[in-house]
Structures are given as structure tokens and as C-alpha cells.
Design goal:
Order of helices and strands of chain A: HHHHHHHEEHHHHHHHHHHHH
Strand content of chain B: under 5%
Oligomer: heterodimer
Number of domains of chain B: 2
Distance between the termini of chain A: 34 Å
Helix content of chain B: over 70%
Number of helices of chain A: 19
Strand content of chain A: under 5%
Number of strands of chain B: 0
Chain lengths: ~500, ~140
């Protein structure tokens, strides 16, 4: 009952006019960003962080704004999947399979509202899961010493490539590159400058916000320039919606599917190396195997719409569990949310729950509120968001680029940071061409220093004995999971990826 | 072939990183591990993974035609100019120029590009500076 009391306090924090307004704004912006192909949850949140930061919002309001964007983007991704057969972001690609056929049959409105309900169910169940699971994980995490934390960070990096990764060497390269970039600057323990090459601007290290915005947002602009993709996806297609409330029988038919896939998606979200894309993929595959007796999946079966949407929204909630409880994110967008916490000087992890309970529970309460707002926005007002699809990218992309510049300039007011950001943008474009995942780079720049500090603390406590890293059963267990997580994709990766990429996002939005 | 070049480049990067790590001056007060060890481990991982990329390359990525590469380069140059001009020319003018350029290169007609540039610039100025109070670069004219 302790938990419920804390949740009550959380609602007291969240229910202020400012926070409600921010949640509403976040849900609205998030849905738009999710709906637009080319802007997904991770780059959407990335663009907004510097803004939330420079506007001087406190920790809880910023988090409420940005997680609302995150949840909103998960809702919004389905809109273009269903209407245009183009996923608005990567987790929404499985929704194309049955959503678009439904729209072709003239059931676009039903598909949109049903997927809205499925998203709600998924996110709602996952938020409850977060409430009950995160405090349990915190209890385990309190047993962690520096050696275990070092192993945990290694686990995060080794599994981040994901089960669908086909080239683990590139994931490892990305992680090492990110950690290497984090090393730039004055060493926190001894005070000697490292990799600064005498450049004073580098003594503070590279700002990870600059890296994130460059890699995620600017590289997207370069991709659009490369393809000279200036039109809107909706050009020349008519966006008929029709009736927007699904019949009860359809909802009833889909309820068992939604409940099962919410649970499955949540588990996929909590596990390292999975994330929302995989959550929707396995949800769809499982439902297809379980209930598709007549072979209607893929031809516009409502259950095929409900399954991936409930799955990916539940996974989005599940992915918050390791991020909040351990400080180790398992997906791209939660890595970006971690950057929010770090830039606000809040260290996530077990102590967050005891030291900043207002932040944690305020955030969780805001998630519930945001979820209801999103349901309201996404069913009666879905027509508004379909209009957004008409915005051509030749107008949208300059705005994205300029807002990125404004945000970063707002933090430091220095042109040097802007130049670094452009450098990251070009690098991000190049790495995407080589199919190198960007999320490990981000996570490396975020966690590199913490990882090194834990290593050095562990070894120093044990008088320079490096074997202390594999001294406790807990640490050994974490290392084993890490190794399995790294080796497994070598065996099954190609198969999973083939299934997921069958409906890949052409513009290659960042993986989540 | 691209992946082989990429891998070789990665290995060179790892070697450079390792050399820079060895060159770190240690302070007389240091912990048992010191500031060099972890960067060297990272350099090793970077080098190893690059070697694997070079030895087992993925299928060739779809490289754009030369013209498109020039396009990306030109956009990067415009952005660099933008970053440098921002403090000199002020936010509104430089942003209108940069946004207009990007809109034009993404296929807008000249008139539409100017409209996008001015609209983006003034819109951001009004929302972020006048309404939200974010400090933007001030040029000689104060905006």
C-alpha cells in the first residue's frame, strides 16, 4: 500500500496547471512527431530537450513534458502506418500489415480508433507494471557495488544492438566510439585533461546534448537532402477516415489480444536489448500464431492492428523501468530521456526513488494523465493529426534543423557547440549509411564516465586487484547475461531482422 | 569495399586514440587504475571491432550519386556559415537565410523557399524569444 500512497503524492505533484499544460503540450507535439515519417520518438525528444532545459523548467516539469512526447509519439506512429502504409516511426511498422488493408477496405476510422484504444490499453497496463516492478528492481539494485554497476553498464552496451542486430561488430564499434567520446575532457578523478589537444572548449568534455541533437535530428535532415525528398507522403492520396468509433463487437473481439500483447510488450520493454520495435514485432507474431485460424492476418484483421499497437506502447512503458530504477536505458528513446535527467543533475538509479520521490512519482502520475489525454486526442481528434501528414518535408525539415540550432545555442550561446553539432550531424549521416547503430554512441557519451568511475572505484577499493570485477555471484550473473545478449543476435539476428525489415522505414528513422 | 575502408579507418582511429591515451600526463596523485587504463581498453575494443568490420564486410551500402554528396557537403557548409554568422548578423537574418536555403535545396520553388525561411525565422523568434523568453543571438540590430 506504500506504493499507492506514493502514487497519491505523485498525483499531487502532477496535478498543477503548469504540469497539466505541459503534459497536454507534450502529448500533442508527440503525436505529431510520431505521425510524421522521418521524425520519431528519439529525435522528437532529442530536439525538445535543449529547449526544455533552456526554458528553465524544473526536473519534474521537463520530464513530464518529454515523457508525454515519448508516449505521444508511440501513439502517433500508427496514423501514417494505417493511412499511407508508411510507418511514422519504427515501432509502428508492424501496424502497416493489417492497418493499411483495413483502410483500403474503407475502415480507416475504425482502424485508427481501435489502434488508439489498443495503444491506451498497452500504455495503461505498462504504467501499472512500472509502478510495481520498478520498486522491486530498486531493491535488487541497492545490493549493487561498483563492480556490479560496471558489469551492468557492460550488459547495457552489449545488449543494446538488440536481438535484431545483424552486425554485432558495428554495435560494438558504436559503443566504443561513444564511450571514447565521453573520455574527452578533464578526468574527474585525477584532474588531468584527456584527448583535448589543447582546445579549451573541450576541457568540459563534449556536451552529450550536442551529440544527441546532431546525431538524431541533423542527420535526418541530411538523409532527406540526400534523397531530395521534399514532398509530403500524403501527396495525391486521399485521406478518407469515415466513421471514427469502432463497433463494440470489434473491441470485444480484440480485448484478449490487447491484454496478452500488452503483457508481452511490457516484458519486451523491460528486457535489455529489446525496445518498442521488437515489442510490436513479437506481439504481432505471437497473435498471428495464436488466433489467426482463418489466415486473415495481413488482410485487414482488426486483431492484427490491436496487437502491435498494444505491444509497442506497453514496451515503451516497460523500457522506463530499467531507466528509472537502474539508470541504464534499454532503448533509444529512454537513452535520450536519461540525457534529460543527467542534464538536470539528477542521477537515475535506485537512489532516485528515495532522494527524489517527487520526481519519480510525479512522472508516473503524469504518465497516467497523459495516457488519458492521448486517448481523448487520438480518437475524436484524429482527423486533425491526419492533416499534419500533408505538411511537405521541404518545409518541415528546415524547421527541424533550425529548432535544433536554437536549442543548442540556447544552452551555451557558443558557436563552437553548433560546429560540434554539425560535425555530429554529418557523422550520423555517414554512420547510418554504414548501418552503424546510433543509440550505442549516445549511450556511450552518456554513461562512459560513470562506467569508468565505477571500474576505477571497484579496482581501487580492492587495492588494484582487477579480478574484483568478477568476484561476486551478482557480477558474474550480469556478465553471463551480457555475453549471452551479445552472442545471441549472431545466431538469431538475421532471421528476426528479416521479419522486421520486411516493412522497413525507407527514410531509415533511428531505431528504437 | 566501403566496409573495408570503414574498418581500416576505424583501426587507425583506435590506434590514434591509444596513442593519445598513452600520452595523457599522469598526475602524481592517482588512483590504482589511473586515467589511461580505461581509454586503452576502449581503444582495444574499437580496434577489434573495426578489424572484424574490415574482415567481414556487409553488403555495399547504397551510396548517393556525386551530385547528392555535393548537396550534403554544401548544406554542411551553409550550416557552418550559419553557426559563425549567428553572432554577427543576428538570429532572424541568419536563420531566414539558412532555413530558406534548406527549403530551396529540398525542392521548394524560390518564392516558397523565401517564404519558408522568413516564416521559420520569424516564427521561432516570436515563439521562443518573445513568448518563452529564450535568449537568441543578437545581431547589430538587436534581433
Amino acid at each position: 500500500m506504500d506504493t499507492l500512497a506514493s502514487l497519491g503524492d505523485g498525483f499531487a505533484v502532477a496535478l498543477t496547471w503548469q504540469n497539466l499544460g505541459l503534459a497536454l503540450l507534450g502529448c500533442f507535439l508527440g503525436t505529431i512527431m510520431g505521425a510524421l515519417p522521418g521524425l520519431g520518438p528519439s529525435n522528437g525528444v532529442a530536439i525538445l530537450i535543449p529547449l526544455a532545459f533552456t526554458l528553465g523548467l524544473g526536473a519534474t516539469p521537463s520530464l513530464i513534458l518529454l515523457t508525454s512526447v515519448y508516449y505521444g509519439a508511440m501513439y502517433g506512429g500508427r496514423i501514417s502506418s494505417i493511412l499511407l502504409n508508411i510507418p511514422g516511426d519504427e515501432p509502428a511498422m508492424m501496424t502497416c500489415l493489417d492497418g493499411h488493408p483495413m483502410a483500403k477496405k474503407g475502415l480507416a476510422g475504425e482502424a485508427l480508433s481501435l489502434s488508439g484504444i489498443a495503444s491506451f490499453v498497452g500504455a495503461f497496463i505498462a504504467t501499472w507494471g512500472l509502478i510495481f516492478l520498478a520498486p522491486q528492481l530498486v531493491k535488487i539494485a541497492l545490493l549493487f557495488g561498483p563492480a556490479e554497476y560496471f558489469a551492468l553498464f557492460a550488459l547495457a552496451f552489449m545488449t543494446l544492438g538488440g536481438v535484431s542486430s545483424t552486425n554485432q561488430a558495428k554495435s560494438a564499434f558504436a559503443a566504443a566510439l561513444g564511450i571514447g567520446l565521453a573520455m574527452v575532457g578533464v578526468d574527474t578523478q585525477t584532474g588531468v585533461p584527456r584527448f583535448t589537444f589543447g582546445e579549451v572548449h573541450l576541457y568540459d568534455g563534449l556536451d552529450f546534448l550536442v551529440a544527441i541533437v546532431g546525431l538524431f535530428a541533423l542527420s535526418e535532415v541530411f538523409i532527406f537532402l540526400e534523397n531530395r525528398h521534399g514532398g509530403s507522403e500524403a501527396q495525391g492520396k486521399k485521406l478518407e477516415i469515415g466513421r471514427i468509433y469502432p463497433p463494440w463487437s470489434m473491441i470485444r473481439q480484440c480485448t484478449p489480444t490487447m491484454l496478452r500483447t500488452s503483457f508481452l510488450g511490457f516484458v519486451a520493454g523491460v528486457l535489455p536489448g529489446a525496445g518498442a520495435s521488437l515489442g510490436s514485432f513479437i506481439s504481432y507474431s505471437m497473435e498471428k500464431r495464436l488466433v489467426d485460424k482463418e489466415g486473415t492476418f495481413g488482410t485487414g484483421d482488426p486483431r492484427g492492428v490491436a496487437a502491435p499497437e498494444a505491444g509497442n506502447n506497453a514496451a515503451a512503458g516497460g523500457a522506463l523501468v530499467p531507466m528509472l530504477a537502474l539508470g541504464v536505458p534499454g532503448s533509444g528513446t529512454t537513452a535520450v530521456l536519461l540525457a534529460v535527467l543527467l542534464s538536470l543533475n539528477i542521477t537515475p538509479g535506485p537512489l532516485l526513488f528515495s532522494q527524489n520521490p517527487d520526481v519519480v512519482w510525479g512522472l508516473i502520475a503524469a504518465l497516467f494523465i497523459a495516457n488519458f489525454m492521448l486517448l481523448a486526442m487520438n480518437i475524436p481528434m484524429v482527423g486533425l493529426f491526419t492533416r499534419v501528414l500533408m505538411i511537405p518535408s521541404r518545409i518541415l525539415m528546415p524547421i527541424v534543423a533550425m529548432v535544433s540550432f536554437v536549442g543548442i545555442y540556447g544552452i551555451s550561446g557558443s558557436s563552437f557547440d553548433l560546429l560540434v553539432m554539425i560535425g555530429f550531424g554529418v557523422m550520423g549521416w555517414l554512420l547510418r549509411k554504414f548501418d552503424v547503430p546510433l543509440v550505442p554512441i549516445i549511450l556511450g557519451t552518456l554513461l562512459g564516465n560513470a562506467m569508468e568511475n565505477n571500474l576505477r572505484r571497484a579496482v581501487t577499493i580492492d587495492n588494484g586487484n582487477w579480478l574484483t570485477l568478477i568476484d561476486s555471484p551478482l557480477a558474474i550473473g550480469l556478465w553471463l547475461v551480457a555475453i549471452v545478449g551479445f552472442v545471441l543476435p549472431l545466431i538469431v539476428g538475421a532471421r528476426v531482422k528479416a521479419g522486421m525489415r520486411a516493412r522497413g522505414d525507407e527514410e531509415g528513422s533511428t531505431r528504437d | 569495399m566501403s566496409d573495408r575502408i570503414f574498418g581500416v579507418f576505424g583501426m587507425l582511429l583506435a590506434i590514434g586514440f591509444a596513442i593519445a591515451a598513452i600520452a595523457i600526463e599522469e598526475s602524481f596523485l592517482s588512483d590504482a587504475v589511473g586515467p589511461k587504463a580505461f581509454p586503452l581498453i576502449i581503444a582495444a575494443i574499437l580496434g577489434l571491432s573495426s578489424a572484424v568490420i574490415a574482415l567481414r564486410p556487409d553488403p555495399e551500402p547504397a551510396w548517393p550519386a556525386l551530385g547528392r554528396l555535393v548537396e550534403i557537403g554544401a548544406a554542411a557548409v551553409v550550416m557552418i556559415l550559419y553557426a559563425n554568422l549567428l553572432p554577427e548578423a543576428g538570429f532572424v537574418l541568419s536563420t531566414a537565410f539558412a532555413a530558406g536555403y534548406l527549403a530551396w535545396r529540398l525542392g521548394s520553388s524560390p518564392f516558397e523557399a523565401v517564404a519558408t525561411g522568413v516564416g521559420t525565422s520569424v516564427g521561432i523568434y516570436v515563439i521562443f524569444h518573445l513568448v518563452l523568453g529564450l535568449s537568441l543571438a543578437r545581431g547589430p540590430w538587436g534581433f
